[in-house]
Design a protein that fits this description.
- With 477 residues, this protein is an alpha/beta fold.
- It has 3 domains: 200 residues, 3-Layer(aba) Sandwich (Isopropylmalate Dehydrogenase), CATH 3.40.718.10; 132 residues, Isopropylmalate Dehydrogenase (3-Layer(aba) Sandwich); 101 residues, 2-Layer Sandwich (Alpha-Beta Plaits), CATH 3.30.70.
- It has 13 helices and 20 strands.
- The strands form 4 sheets. A 10-stranded mixed beta sheet has the order 2-1-3-12-11-4-5-10-8-9, with helices on both faces. Strands 17-16-18-15-19-20 form a 6-stranded antiparallel beta sheet, with helices on one face. Strands 6-7 form a two-stranded antiparallel ribbon.
- α1 links the parallel β1 and β2.
- α1 packs across α9, α1 runs parallel beside α11 and α7 packs parallel to α8.
- The longest helix is centred in the first third of the chain and has 17 residues.
- The protein is elongated, with a radius of gyration of 26 Å.
- The structure holds nicotinamide-adenine-dinucleotide.
- The site of nicotinamide-adenine-dinucleotide has 20 residues, from loops.
Length: 477
């Protein structure tokens, strides 16, 4: 018996959760339930995170959380419960299977069967943003080695546990050589440990185009947070219906399972909603807690129900569907088919024996880090980079001098193009004449800049690691 936490959520949440739990119990799931309240009412009672402190205790004690969609009230100040939950509980992996049910649910991609594994904690979603000048704001993209190792390893372990043949990595490392470069590098390192599973890397733009056009070319696809956010919705949509997909959010100790759709408030309370998305989340949960046999029973009965044309309004199609049913009747139809197999769709036989057992991240030995220079970011209202260079060169010393100025990453001095459009945000790169540079030299540069009225809005140290420069060049440099 596994104790799980359940939240029925808002809108259609309570109906689809009741339907899902009814199916789980009928199939013999060995679960005991602690129910908590999250969502709209909690927000409106003045709790800006949508969840009470006592509920966290229950979630953390049970470690497995099945959550129905919630409604985030309109207006500012309410924090996304999903984002908070992922971050607090360290749910680093978002797993979303996207499978077409051709010919029972309309799709342009009858053979599609893709699992998107999205990194869930870092990338641009760290939410570290600043306005730096009148014209420029920035968002920090943070990619960590532990973050990459955990998600990539998860993708390969998932592939192995679920009999998948290939793992594909999407990044944009031709442009973001440090951040996406690290993700790709870690992918290549870890892929070697799984010789039984094919691996490949695509640049995300052409990879996304291929995924949208020929999804049957992919199996498991792993990617950083932002690309995964966008492409997991694309994948679910082209598979047939966003209403049919579930997702798992997996951490080292806790996990959360849900449907990918929202609370559909306009459909609430009418016994109309399709419970399939949440049911798919619950099936992933059963696999996670080692009840693969129950998960298989439910999935096969669900596939059979879809095949038999018993459809809720969102997937109902004249000529294909046989009976239009509501939430409760759909659940009854699945329960009636427990023990049956689909006849044309592929049946499942999950072997998963519980949560994937990943090794804890081992911190690597420190590398030799050497300071080589500093980028001073300057707020300046002029437009001629040569003029700015004259001003900034006043900071040159015997040991550090201006080597380059860029604007939005493009080199504008020396030898810039006058066609290049410039904002008021300038990066002025100082390189030391001998390494290592010292922090004292940077402090000296900054105090001289202050004395000369140069508006430095931030600095970024330039390091090499094990002798290799670990910072981007200017574009055009
Ligand atoms: P939505 O997913 O709730 O609805 C989009 C469309 O799909 C609507 O036409 C809806 O009727 C339909 N739909 C969704 N689920 C369905 C189902 N199970 N069966 C049949 N039809 C279904 O997205 P939205 O309208 O943009 O958002 C509504 C609310 O849900 C918002 O408050 C939003 O913040 C919230 N939301 C919550 C989550 C979550 O809790 N995980 C996710 C997304 C949106």
């Amino acid at each position: 018996m596994t104790r799980i936490t359940v939240a029925k959520g808002d809108g259609i949440g309570p109906e689809i959760m009741d339907a899902t739990l009814r199916i789980l119990h009928a199939a013999g799931a060995q679960i005991e339930i602690d129910e908590i309240e999250v969502g709209e009412q909690v927000y409106l009672s003045g709790n800006t995170s949508g969840i009470a402190a006592e509920s966290w205790d229950i979630i953390r004690r049970n470690k497995v959380f099945l959550k129905a969609p919630i409604t985030t009230p309109q207006g500012g100040g309410y924090k996304s419960l999903n984002v908070t939950t992922r971050k607090f509980l360290g749910l680093y992996a978002n797993v979303r299977p996207c499978m077409s049910l051709h010919p029972y649910v309309r799709t342009k991609h009858p053979l599609m069967d893709v699992v998107i594994v999205r990194e869930n904690e870092e990338d641009l979603y760290a939410g570290i943003e600043h306005q730096q000048t009148d014209e420029v704001v920035q968002c920090l993209k943070l990619i960590s080695r532990p973050g990459c190792e955990k998600i990539v390893r998860y993708a390969f372990e998932y592939a192995r546990a679920y009999g998948r043949k290939k793992v594909t990595c999407f990044t944009k490392d031709n442009i973001m050589k440090q951040t996406d470069g690290l993700f790709h590098q870690v992918f290549d390192e870890i892929a070697v440990e799984y010789p039984d599973i094919e691996n490949e890397h695509w640049i995300v733009d052409i990879g996304a185009a291929k995924l949208a056009d020929t999804p049957e070319a992919f199996d498991v696809v792993v990617m950083p947070n932002l690309y995964g956010d966008v492409l997991s919705d694309v994948a679910a949509q082209i598979a047939g219906s966003v209403g049919l997909a579930g997702s798992a959010n997996i951490g080292e100790t806790c996990a959360m399972f849900e449907a990918i759709h929202g609370s559909a408030p306009r459909r609430a309370g009418q016994d109309l909603a399709n419970p399939s998305g949440l049911l798919q989340g619950a099936i992933m949960m059963l696999n996670h807690i080692g009840q693969g046999d129950v998960a298989s029973r439910i999935q096969n009965a669900w596939l059979r129900t879809m095949e038999d044309g018993i459809h809720t309004y969102d997937v109902y199609k004249e000529g294909v569907s046989r009976e239009k049913v509501g939430t409760r009747a759909f659940a009854d139809a699945v329960i009636a088919r427990l023990g049956q197999q689909p006849t044309t769709l592929k049946s499942v036989n999950y072997q998963a024996s519980g949560a994937l057992n990943l090794p804890r991240y081992q911190r690597k030995a420190q590398r030799a880090k050497e300071l080589q220079g500093v980028d001073l970011f300057v707020h300046w209202h002029g437009t001629d980079a040569n003029e700015l260079a004259k001003i900034i060169k006043q900071l040159n010393t015997d040991t550090a001098s201006l080597s380059m100025i860029t604007n939005r990453g493009i080199k504008v001095w020396p030898e810039g193009f006058e066609e290049t459009f410039c904002t008021d945000h300038w990066r002025c790169r100082f390189k030391a004449s001998t390494f290592p540079m010292t922090k004292q030299q940077i402090i000296f540069l900054l105090s001289r800049a202050e004395a000369l009225g140069i508006d430095v809005i931030k600095t970024e140290n330039l390091y090499s690691f094990d002798g290799k420069a670990a910072y981007s060049l200017g574009q055009g440099q």
